[in-house]
Each structure stands twice: as structure tokens, then as C-alpha cells.
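Example 3.
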Amino acid sequence: MAPRGSRAGLPTVFFACAICIFLSFFLLYPVGLMLRRAFIVNGSFSLALFADLWSNSLRRECIMNSLVIGVAVTIACVIISTPLALLVARCNFAGKKWLTGLVLVPMIMPPFVGAIGMRQVLSRNGTIDILLVKLLSWLGIVSPDTMGLVDLTRGGLLGVIILETLHLYPIMYLNLTAALANVDPAMEEAGRNLGASAWRLLRTVTVPLAMPGFFAGAIIVFIWAFTDLGTPLIFDFHRVIPVSVFNDARAINENPSSFSLVVVVIVICAVTFLLSKRFTDRRTYYMLSKNTRTRPAANLSFRGTLLAYVLFGGITLVAVLPHISVVLTSLSKEWVFTAFPTQLTVGYYRDIFGREETVSAIKNSFLYSIGSTGFDVVLGVGIAYVLARKRFPGAQVLDAVAMIPLALPGFVVAFGYVAAFVGSSAFRIIDPFVNPTFLLMVSYSVRRLPFMVRSVYAGFQQVSPSLEEAAANLGASPSRTLRTITLPLVLANVLAGGILCFSFAMLEVSDSMILASARPFYPITKTIYDLSMNLKGGDNLAAAMGVFGMGLLVVSLLVAGKVLGERMGELFRT
Amino acid sequence: MVAVRLEGITKSFGDVVAVRNVSLEIPEGQLFFILGPSGCGKTTMLRTVAGFEAPDSGRVYFDGRDVTGTPPHRRNTGMVFQNYALWPHMTVFENVAYGLRVRGLDRSSVAARVAQALDMVRMPGEARRFPNQLSGGQQQRVALARALVIRPACLLLDEPLSNLDAKLRLEMRAEIRRIHAESRVTAIYVTHDQKEALSMAERLAVVSAGAIVQVGAPDEVYRTPADDFVAGFVGETNFLKGVVRAVGAASAAVDTGVGVITGVVQAERPVAAGEPCVVSVRPEDITLSGKPSPANCFRAEVIQYTFLGETGQYVCRAGGTDFKVLMVAPVGRPQSGQVLYLTIPEDRALILPQSPRPSGGA
């Protein structure tokens, strides 16, 4: 984002300073503190904590597992979304619009909620296992009373990979589709004209030109999967970095090696992010001149269309298995050692609104989300306005700082808050272990700030400065121009960004897990986790809670989609 | 190098007929222009030759060989795209070398041919740069080199100069002519710029609404346009609507709003007495003087005079009709309201049947 526009006046400078102070205090300070605690031991620089980390085989295993999850999920997402993206970018078929909308469905539920249902499906004595035993015993290969043949979660690792993949492939798909659509058709025709075969063309022209979009998607998927806390927790799979850090957060001062672990995460994320950024920037070709033609899409024959439906339908069907299993879990009175629930009930939905802990969780989530959305609107509009319309030294720094949360996992931020604000007398008023309300709002908002800034910045860019100049020319003061011209024109973007921030906050996992310390402060997500740990009916109630959250998310995303239209996909790209 | 022949090509996109029963013959080595207003289907014709569009009916022949069903990558044409379509992820060298590598040439011949092609477009020493480091004119040259280096059967140029500024455009016109003269490749050049076509073409086709209206050498098309569309689109002209009064040998007299005008009739486009017709007179063919002359002469009032350097453009009104007149600029400035005698030489007043098409831009 290149700085442009008028020189900043005093109010702008003041406002920019306020934003900087906020970001310094709630973003740079906690991160800096963790870095210090990781590198400074007993008052002097030392790599001892990293040596400890390396010598501790459990920690090493955590790092390996997290990396495996990140890489495996990324690869799986690429494999799933590439054919879909190619099909959508290159072909026309009946019902395409409707079918492509289906691809996004899996995104409406955080994977950790899906995990509650999928435990029932994937684990030993789960649906698939039982059906398998039935099949094999019918074939006479095993005896009918065999118990537990396979565990498809592989102790959690595979379960996490499956859940994350099914949740994240739409992000990869969105980025790939956009990248392919952005390749100027003349670029391909030029290759064709010079004699390149279809395969050679794909290899030498199309794929290289689509690389930036590919990396943009891959980086989001990798960081997300690499740092997800909720899903492994539900699978009770503790040998990953986020869970390990989560378990340490309570006793933060007793085990300083968590700091080195967090720093490892920060470094891995930052390096991945910068590498991909560097690669995408260097290769982001502003097309030398505008596209002169729209891409001629091939019309699929009846068989081709059928194949497209099978492909999209099949993938979507698999991707909504978690959703189905969660809904089933929430409706089943009994679901133990059977392939499918034996008795259905709606009692758990009644319970959500009847039990004190669930009602307070819903209230808390609304409170935190509204608060964090408020922060996001003020900060996001402010930053976007300053970046889009004002020239001032340090604009690039502000831009970079506002984008840091993209590469900063939630549990890292939350852990930083615990390190920075817990137990110190100076910050007692915001100590999350006393009352996490304020810090939860702040952490939610900081995490989603890049989305908000993007959304609004895009809005400002679409509003030509000459519209503002016209108002100024007719005598409107800068603040009046802002109020009567600019803000109304970017309102849609603010609204859409706000709705997205709100819905993400409603189902945010990492910050909630780590910062919400006592039951009265639990938001929806932590309550879901808490309930799922209860033996009797906990899963079912948790699943019902998850379905309720999913409903909220769907409503907000539909509203956001209505407001933002086609541009919604842009928010999920880097 | 091949002779290109189109035979009865028709192509529709949905309900829109882009190309209507077009037949063309382009001899080997000729620089041939397809000229027409935007949206007339000329680019579609070019893309049909390249193989990017399959015609609904009709055939394309290269040297008598039917290539209608041949996919684009097997036609060995070299195309220069309107936006150049240089691949931004490849250097100039890689861009130009692409077609040679596709053809499986060994490294040293690739390097030699690329160097030769870059020399030809006067871009030596720029091989290692990326397209986005080049100016518009340089990109244009690279695009030309990339198309020429494969020694194409036929060079196809799709409005190649439309993205350049006026001065560069003039320079590149000369360059493309020079390069064509050196390579003697059959070239089909599509443009909407009549000056470009008139100044560069060996032969040209004027296209309107997907159909070919006239094919000929530039001076032929300019001097003897097939109808009022061509007359209006290629160069500037004055149109006078009228009715044919009498027909003679290769000439006719026409009743117009100004008076009776005698002019020439082309043998292939005859007119009959009593028919409506159009008289076309080029501004530079009209003479103005202080004294009347015996034939086709009308009293006219100077409405406006524009000094253009070596020439001067008058707008004169005679019999309620405004004439554009282009003359070598006189010394001193003619006054508005001044009365002069306007003469239309009989051999320069072209009598044309009225075409069903809208007439071209004046």
C-alpha cells in the first residue's frame, strides 16, 4: 500500500499516534516481552532455553507433529482444490454458480466443533470402524463381535489433519480460482500461437503466472493448520505446539521453555510469511496492460457437467461430514458403540437456553464480539483512511504492524498477553486471570484487524479522491467531507468487515481458551470445550452449542456476503 | 511463408454474427491490412487465421492446404497481440526463445536466432531484462521479435500500435514496414486506423459489420471507394445526397441540394436515372477561387477557416450545404463571410449507389 494523498494534518497525526500506541501496547509489547523472556536468562543473553527445547524429546515431538500437520494439510488442500479451481476457471456448465457456492460451505464451522462429531465417526468403535467390522464379518474375514478394528484419527494426528483439510481447502480454492482468473487469456494464446502444447502451456505460462495466488492461499492454510489449538484439544492430542503452550499458560513462570517454543512458532510463521510474501511480490506482475478479452470458457458436454457435479458434490459431501456428525451428535440421546445414534432428542437444544453456564457463555460471546468489533471498526477505519489518503512518514511501518496479526497465531498473542499482563500489579485492571473481558475484546480485535483494514482500504481505493476534492472545492471542511462523502461511500466495506470480525470473534478459539480463566467468563467456544470434557451428555450438549454457533456464523456470513457481494472472497487472500 | 486464403468464413457468437461469409486471398509475402471500425469483426477474422476461433462455416487455406481444423499451436503463425501478451515471468530472451524451444531447437541455435531477431527489431543487449522494465515501444518490438523468430508461415498483427502514443506510433509504422521488407513474410495486419492502413498496406480490405466491402491497393480504395461507407471511413470526404438525372458513358448528372453535379460513375457500380445516390468529393479535390468556372461551379460563403501549417481547411456553405475544402494554405487569412467560387472537378466527383450500411466516420 503506497502512501498517497494529502499531507497529514494535526488531527491525523494525533490519531495515527493513538493507533500506534494501542498497537505497541497490545501487539508489539507482548511479542517483544516473549522474545526477551526467551533469549534473556538471568539477565544476560542466552540460547539455553532453545537448547532445553531441543534436548526435550516431548517438545521436539510437538514441533514435528505441528509441522507435519501444517505441511500435510497444505498439500491435501492443494490436491483437493486444484482440480476444482481449474474446472471453475476454465469451463462453463449448468448450475456452476450454485455449485461453486457449495464449496464454501465447510467454512461455516470451526474445525474444533466438527471434531466433536468426527470423534464419533473416525475413532475406534466409531461409525466407520463399526461399519467396517460389519462388512468384514459379513465377508467372514473377522468375527462379528470384534471390537475396534481401526482408529482413523491415528491417536489424533490424522484426525486433526482430516478436520483441518476439510475446513481449509475452500481458502486454497478461492485463492487459486482468483489467480487463474487473473491470468490474461492473451498470455496463453501467445504460447499456443508459438506452438506450445496444452501441457507445455500449463507448465510454462499458466502455472508460473498463477503462483502468487497459489502461495497466498498456501500460506494462510499452513499457518492456520500449524497453529490451530482447538482441534487437537478436542481429539485429546496434546503433542502439538499449541496445546503444549496452552497447557503451560497457567503456570507460565514455572516453565520458561514455553517462551522458546513460542519464539520458534513466531520464527516459523514469520519466515514462511516473508518467504511467500517475497515470492509473491517479486512475481506479482501487474499485467502490462489491461486484459483485452474476457476468457472464453469451454462449455462442458453433458458428461463433463456430470463429472463436475460428481467432483464438487463428492468433495462437498465429504467436507460436510463433520457438520452432519455434529448435528447428529447434538440430536442423539444415545450414541455409544453404534454406527448411528439409536435415539434422537432435541433436549440438548433446550438445555442450551436453560443451563446457567451455556446462557452466560452466549451472553459473554456477544459482549466480547461486539466490543472487539467496535475496536476493529475504529482502528480499521482509522488505519485504512490514513494509509489510503494521507502521506506521512512511517506509513509503511503502520501498514506492516497492522498486518502482523496475519502471521501471528492466536495462541501466541494470547500467551503473550498472559506473560505481559498476568500477575503484575501495574496491569491488574486488565489481568485476564482476574477479569479477561477487556483483553479478550482486544485480542479478538487485534487478530482480525488485518481483515478490517483490508476491507476498508479497498473501499477507500474505490472512492476516487476527486469525489472528495469536489466536496472540498464546494467549501466542505475535511471532517465534513469525511462524514458526508467518504464514509457513506465506504460504509458497505466497513459493515462487511465488521460483520466478519464479529462472526470470527463469536467462534474464536485460541484466545478464548487461554485468556478466559474462570467459568463465569467463558465464551461459547471455551464452554464447548469444557462441556465436551464432561462424560455424561457433554459431547451432545457441546455439539448443540456448536450447531447454535454455526447458525450464528451462517447468518453473519450471509449478511456480509449480501453487503460485499463478489468481493467477499478477496478478504481471504493475502 | 504461405499464401493465405479464406473461403466463405462465417462466425457467430451467440446471436451476434461477427463475421459474415468472408472470402479473402492474400498472396505470399504481402503486407495485407484488414481495416474497419471497432466491433466490425476484423479481429475475429485474424483469430480465425490463427486458429483461436473455429468458423461456423467456411475454410482457411495456407498455400492451398486446408488448415481449418488445425489447432493454433500447429499452424506456425506468429501473432502480435494488441496488449503484446509478453510473459511477465520471463526475460526478453526467454520470451523470444519460447517458440524456438517449443520447436526443439538446440541451445546454440536458439541463442543465435534470438540474437538475430532482437537485432532485427533493434533491441540488442536488452535480452536479460523483464518486460515490465521496458517502455511500450520496446515491448512492441519484443512482441514482434517473438512472433518473427519462429519464421512463421504468416505474421498476424492485432492492432499492434493502438497502445502507443502518437509519435511512437509513427516510428513503429516505419519500423514494421522495414521489418516486413527485410523478412518478406506474409503479414495480416488488423487496424481501425485508416491512416495506418493507407500508409503501410500493400493491399487492404475494408470491413463493415462482419463483411468485406472492398479489397484493393490503398490508392485504389481511396480514389475509387466502393460505396459511401468506404468513402467516409477511408479518408475524409464530402457527401451530397441526390437523385440521378441523366446517365452518360462513365458519367452521370445528379440533382443535389446544391445544384446539378456532373461526376464519374464506376463501371462496376452503375447507377440508373431516377435512383437515389450519393456524390462523394474529397476536400483536397475541390478548388476555391475568386472567379467562376464553366462546370460544377457554385457560389460559396466561407464559414470557417483553420490554418494547419502547410494546408488550410475551409468550411464553405453553398446552397445550404457545408463543404470541407483542403487547399495549400494561402498567404493571408481568408475572412469569414467572404464569397468565393467552389469548383468540383468532374473527374473527382464520384457518384456512388447508396449503401445499406451506415456511412463511415467523416
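Strands of chain A lie at 6-7, 40-41, 44-45, 91-92, 298-299, 332-334, 343-344, 390-391. Residues 286-292 of chain A have pLDDT under 50 and may be disordered.
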